[in-house]
Design a protein that fits this description.
The structure is a single chain. This protein is an alpha/beta fold. It is 35% helix and 27% strand. The chain is built from 14 helices and 18 strands.
Length: 425
Amino acid sequence: MKQINVQVGFLGLGNIGGGVWRLLKQMRAEIEARESIKFTIKRVLVRDLYKRRSVNVPNDILTARVQDILDDPEITLVVEALGGEQPAADYIKRALEAGKSVVTANKLALATHWLELLETANHRGVGLFFEAGVCGAIPIIRTVTDSLQANRIERLFGIINGTTNYILSEMSAKDATYADALFEAQRLGLAEPDPTADVEGGDAACKLAILSTLAFHAHVPLSGIFKRGITTITPLDVSYGRELGYALKLLAVSKRVGDRIQARVHPTFVPLTHPLSAVSGSFNAVYLYGHASGELMLYGRGAGDYPTASAVVSDMIAAARGRQGPAYRMTSDVTMDDDWESRYFIRLSAVDRPGVLGAIASILGRHGVSIASMRQNTMGLDHAPLMFVTHAARERDVRASLTEIGENLATIENVIYVEDMKEGE
């Protein structure tokens, strides 16, 4: 097999870029022997030329000018490892316009500039690869686009943010508070000093936008994804859920019914009997249904320098072989559904007096929300903890009923979605 020589430009040399550099150096001989591909990193864009780095990179290939990469005709492959929306999205587009294939792990740039980046890549006939943008080393993009072409994917559920999964796992295993579990995640380097993107669901929403678009062959915009984070979760929610037979996860949910798609990220109770309930720590997993394949689950490391680098280098090999990236064709127009059906866990602090429970149940019933199970603990207090799990109900009906329940009856402490994960639901 004739050897393929590829000149590469790196945009960024932080955690991900450094991991890719180390993995390429470690696997260079094996990649050349097995794949007949030789990667030569010609230029590396950095912000500070004189900063001490975790990898030993020759000074003569460092540059602070992006033009040194984008305007170099010998560089045919660009690895974007800057992170963030800008200037990364602009650099990716400019690289594609210059006829260079791009490999990126940047889910935010992709999710917010999806159509223009894909259009640019298709117009120029170059590749845009982003396996590492969703779930690190887990090959979920290739599975959806290359292995399940003979399927109509109907539903997918994902634990796709390792930081929040670690926090909720700690809260479950150790009865830790959210604040204590977050502190431990930050101490271990699993959470950023500013964890907002993770704990408020933004990171998972970006990944879900990409996954849903590929799975359903229809553009699912980031703006159309409902998201709610884990910052209001308490040990009480976790323990009550466990008693009811559920594990609590920040779940990415995407379903298609006809021309309507619902895409949402939020804390969700998952049955302890379901494989997703056992995904703990910082691991990721995606569980999906294809009409022909049935149920599938992919599980593994969703973040970290080496797991992410594994996906990046795999994409680099695909690009070197002349592929154009994951197959994506928009086959239909869809409407984003904001009135989905789900079961709900509702925790209230109810006024402890006769008739309150009946009044609350009556309000729920008027809005078409029926109670499947209930727990109450009066404890002789003025306000008593009260927990409902509803039957399947519409989102708008639940919101309307909770709005009607005033403080003279109860204070709404938390509302958590419940997915029974049954096939054909």
